[in-house]
Amino acid sequence: MKRYSVFAVAREAARYHTGWERAWKSPEPKKKYDVIIIGAGGHGLATAYYLGKNFGIRNVAILEKGWLGGGNTGRNTTIIRSNYLQDPSAAIYEKSRSLYEDLSQDLNYNIMFSPRGVMMLAQTEHEVRGYLRTAHANALQGVETRFIKPDEVKKLVPIINIDGPRYPVLGALWQPRGGTARHDAVAWGYARACSDMGMDVIQKCEVTGVRQEGGRVVGVDTNRGAIDCDKLGIVVAGHSGVLAEMAGFRLPIESVALQALVSEPIKPCMDVVVMANTVHGYMSQSDKGEMVIGGGADGYNNYTQRGSFHHIEETVRALIETFPMISRLKMLRQWGGIVDMTGDRSPILSKTPLENCFINCGWGTGGFKAIPGSGWGFAELMAKGSSPLCDEFSMFRFREGKFIDESVAAGVAH
Amino acid sequence: MLILECPYCGLHADETELAPGGEAHLKRFGPGSSDDDFEGYLFMRENPKGVHFERWRHANGCGKWFHAARDTNTLEVFGTYSAQTTEPPQDIKDKISARRPGWTWREFA
Ligand SMILES: Cc1cc2nc3c(=O)[nH]c(=O)nc-3n(C[C@H](O)[C@H](O)[C@H](O)COP(=O)(O)OP(=O)(O)OC[C@H]3O[C@@H](n4cnc5c(N)ncnc54)[C@H](O)[C@@H]3O)c2cc1C
Ligand SMILES: [Zn+2]
Fold first, then answer.
1. What 8-state DSSP symbol labels residue A335?
2. Is residue A297 included in any domain, yes or no?
3. Burial label, A48 (beta-carbon count in 10 A; 0-12, 13-18, 19+)
């Protein structure tokens, strides 16, 4: 693989850009791999990457039924933060955030990580107390966050209306190192690095069955034939229930639609990410100038990648109160993704009842921020059978009552 | 927009009038049951891509709970029926069979 650099740009400019090579290959599936990962979203690709990089396991295929990053990874609003409440969450989300910091250099692919700061508004007394608690928890966990007062909020976000009337801004939980990144680039960067290590990233390859012998997985059936493997990683977000059924177990997960929308591009007006959990909306400004807006998830099961209009209406209605200047903006695009929700709003990175079959799912409305950390931990889990980043996130925690309750930190969908 | 007919008051209610209540026909297990049964009842869900049975409440209407049979993959509604039953009634099953031959959902088909 030729490295991307300023010299490469200059060299190619001098020869009419004829020398760029394909970023990844499009191989035919082999008969057998050491490891098969189902799902080429961020989490599946990152898992494969760290299997290769950290554990030297490179006979790996990543099977994707659609296109690279075409699931939630390419549909999310890219908020990256690690200001969760529980210790296991802080560990994996902070690992992830810190990996994002030099991911562009690591992958030699510009993922446009922008640590512009993430602010979670406190608009009720209840939220003030909640975020003060989170700020203290984060201090103990070594995650840099701070509770800031309304005047500091206003200084950081001049377009905000802090006086209410219905939901005045009483303060905010501020994570200066949080931010955003380019979602497609994260998938593409990992895919390119995986392909470069000799792994097969196979698109338009849908897994239709999981084959097992004597309680252990031996391979998968796909629309491009049967493929054998020693170990299987299921990393399919919204379709986790469907794959689990193929593998013969059930999950504590339900799949619902989550939507987002963007406005027409405008001049730079807000250089941080603002989340308003009470009113269920959040907003940031993309590099193109669009206001990127998201809100709450639907309340019922859905696989159509379309959500209900009234959620969009509620989100926008709430944000207009907080940011009056957006009331005249035209909205350009709206879309949905199918997110995999667990009862405690924490993910599952786990062994399964089927031996050598592992599952990474349940990231729900907030897993983009976790892609590097999840891949790092899940690769270790798949390679060694245990990982300090993952062990608390076992799918069996529910029966033991060992929830990792993040329903407050996850508050609004993001 | 999802529209369901409330089997009690007969209104065609759009989803802003309704509150979703999750998977229907859960078998309840309490103290004294096995860990497997208790876990299954409390946490494990069918989450099918296709035919699904759900509980809904006509929250901003008559206030009553009822059941709905839907397809989560197409958003087609097969029908709604009373909450006072442990199994979908035959006419709902027939309607589903007419549209989705060979469907299954837990032990019902
Ligand atoms: C509107 C929206 C906004 C969001 N905003 C944020 C945010 O601001 N910050 C944040 O951290 N997170 C956010 N999220 C959540 C985040 O997008 C997801 O948690 C994350 O992208 C999940 O990544 P993944 O790799 O697990 O899943 P995906 O990216 O969904 O990848 C799974 C892949 O598996 C494939 N697949 C499924 N079934 C099969 C099969 N049978 N065979 C082969 N392949 C299969 C799918 O095609 C898909 O490409 C948002 C999500 C949505 C929908
Ligand atoms: Zn009614």
1. E
2. yes
3. buried
Number of domains in chain A: 2
ipTM attached to this prediction:
0.95
Residues in chain B with CB shorter than 8 Å from the CB of A252 are 43-45
Its pTM stands at 0.96
Owning domain of residue A400: 29-105+182-251+344-409
Tens of pLDDT along A323-358?
Answer: 999 999 999 999 999 999 999 999 999 999 999 999
Do A333 and A261 fall within a single domain? yes
Chain B stretch 27-86, residues whose beta carbon is closer than 8 A to a beta carbon of chain A: 35, 38-40, 42-49, 52, 54, 72-75
Whether A15 is in a domain gets the answer no
Query: Pairing between strand B3-5 and A273-276?
Result: unpaired
Cα angle A96, A102, A107 (rounded to 5 degrees) comes to 95
Each residue's pLDDT tens digit, B81-101: 999 999 999 999 999 999 999
Report residue A126: phi and psi, to 5°: -60, -45
If asked whether residues A58 and A189 sit together in one domain, one would say yes
> Count H helices, E strands: chain B?
2, 6
A401 in a structural domain: yes
A225 and A312 share one domain? no
Distance CA A180, CA A294 (A): 14
Q: Domains (ranges, CATH) in chain B?
A: 3-99 (3.30.2270.10)
Is the same domain home to A143 and A269? yes
Residue minimizing CA distance to atom 3 of ligand 1: A76
Please check whether residue A10 lies inside any domain of the structure: no
List of residues 6+ apart from B46 with CB closer than 8 A: A241, A250, B23, B52, B105, B106
Give the CA count within 13 Å in the CB-facing half-sphere of A278. Answer: 20
Which is it for the CA torsion A410, A413, B4, B6, positive or negative? positive
